[in-house]
Amino acid sequence: MGLPMVMLLPFVVKFLLNFRPIHECCISMMHATRLFLFQMGHIAFDSGGTITTGGDVRWQRALRLLCQRVNDARRSQQTEDSLIALSMLAL
Q: CA 59, CA 44: separation in Å to the nearest integer?
């Protein structure tokens, strides 16, 4: 029973990615992840800071970036919820 499921998995994934909303969601999630990893790498390996407090400044920048991402995600969820509520009222 395990082998047929493993063989069907690529077809199921391909079938699901053919749906436009799922495809767009995956693409936007990949772009956001790449940007986040790029920014974290830039913070971690940037040699432009001072030598004595470079680690502290980097941690502060990383935490600020993480907090900004969390706040942006919350705002987008609130916007999405309000758009759903508005569309339900319009119906």
A: 8
